[in-house]
Amino acid sequence: MGVITISREFGSGGSRIAAEVARELGYHLIDKKTIGRLLAAYGLIEFDREYDSELGFWASFDSQVKEMVSMLNRVTRALARHGNVVVLGRGAFAVLHGYIDVLNVRIQAPLESRLARVMAEMEIAERAKAEELLREGDRVRSSFVHTMYGMRWDASSAFDLVLDTSKIPAELAASWIAEALRRSKTERKGTRTLDIEADTTLDETIQAELHCLEKHRA
Predict the structure, then answer these.
(1) Which residues are CB-contacts of 55 (< 8 A; sequence separation ≥ 6)?
(2) What is the 3-state secondary structure (H, E, C) of the chain?
(3) Fewer CB near the last or first residue (10 Å), C or N of the chain?
(4) Tens digit of each residue's pLDDT (9 = 90 or more) over 167-201
(5) Which pTM was predicted?
(6) CATH number, domain at 126?
């Protein structure tokens, strides 16, 4: 198994944990900037802005939205096929749901814990401002996943591992995730990332972006 997706509530510390997991395993960290550059290579330079935009954009589900999501899905699957990646956010857990060699992780924390982290890290003095930022971040992520994939973003049943960072320090959470991947049993039958159809052009673009000519295999 060489693919981890990490979905996180806004302010839960998921980005830090994803980076630490990638470092510990020696994997490629795939974050919003990586995804953005890959999509930009195909002309979708507005994806990041639209992803973080008002909820109505995704609800419209017009031809522009369909194109963006279709390309995002292709990129996510191609990254999984490449292997040895930690994919942060962007609905990756929904795209790769059902692949037996993918470990889907959710990072969450109670509201008060996330508020404290957001106010400290973003230097926001007003609680109301921080709370609105936090709730909007959650709303955008939830709306995107539900509208595009018909899945609940906060459903624990969609994940293999759910961690609460108000109780589990980031370093320990990262260590647990890495160990979970190492111990994962994938001998059971089912669809694997190796079964994903190859896209030569996209594969070459990913290899160039990751500076990695190797396609990793579990």
Answers:
(1) 139, 140, 143
(2) CCEEEEEECCCCCHHHHHHHHHHHHCCEEECHHHHHHHHHCCCCCCHHHHHCCCHHHHHHCCHHHHHHHHHHHHHHHHHHHHCCEEEECCCHHHHCCCCCCEEEEEEECCHHHHHHHHHHHCCCCCHHHHHHHHHHHHHHHHHHHHHHHCCCCCCHHHCCEEEECCCCCHHHHHHHHHHHHHHCCCCCCCCCHHHCCCCHHHHHHHHHHHCCCCCCCC
(3) C
(4) 999 999 999 999 999 988 766 788 899 889 988 88
(5) 0.88
(6) 3.40.50.300
User: Domain span at residue 186?
Assistant: 6-207
Long-range contacts made by residues 164-170, C-beta under 8 angstroms, separation at least 24?
164/108, 164/109, 164/110, 165/12, 165/13, 165/14, 165/17, 165/107, 165/108, 165/109, 165/113, 166/109, 166/110, 166/113, 170/13, 170/16, 170/17, 170/20
pLDDT number for residue 142: 87
Question: What confidence tens digit (pLDDT) does each residue in 21-60 have?
Answer: 999 999 999 998 999 889 888 776 555 555 555 444 455 5
Query: What is the tally of structural domains in the chain?
Result: 1
Query: Is 59 contained in some domain?
Result: yes
pLDDT of residue 146: 87
